[in-house]
Amino acid sequence: MSQQTVFQQIGGFPTFQRLVDEFYNRVENDPELRRIFPPELEAGKQGQLLFLVQYFGGPGTYSQERGHPRLRMRHAPFVIGPRERDLWLKYMLEAIEVVGIAEPARTEMRDYFKRSATFMINKPDASHPSLKVID
To answer: Which distant-in-sequence residues (6+ apart) come within 8 Å of 20 by Cβ?
Structure first.
């Protein structure tokens, strides 16, 4: 018996679409985080949807259309410090809860988002307790 991917476990595209919509609704209503997103959000929503679908075991449309994800490079134009990371992660974890993603996918997704949100930081803050600036 083969193991299902997260994509399959949570119901495929419709669930990922709901996740992205819930996340972006929170971003749109937070002036602090909203300022680091481009003025037009639709392209970002579509990119995030395709990336998450692909990352979690769905079709590889993201790479077919856009090439390698190169997440740090694609996020480099935006100032992402610990505060932005914390807000982004808060809203993504809230979206997981609202959508009702069940275990074991819930833990796998939460763990991925925690790691990737920290990886996107490009403006470290030495005073933030969870980060150290590397000289």
So the answer is: 45, 48, 49, 52, 95
Contacts of 64 (CB under 8 A, 6+ apart): none
Alpha carbon distance 6, 106 (integer Å): 9
**Overall pTM > 0.70:** yes
The residue extents of the domains of the chain are: 10-119
51 pLDDT above the threshold of 90: yes
What per-residue confidence (pLDDT) applies to 135? Answer: 31
Examine the pLDDT at 2 and tell me if it is beyond 60. Answer: yes
CATH fold, domain 10-119, is Globin-like (1.10.490)
18's tokens:
């709901």
Structure tokens at 133: 């600036």
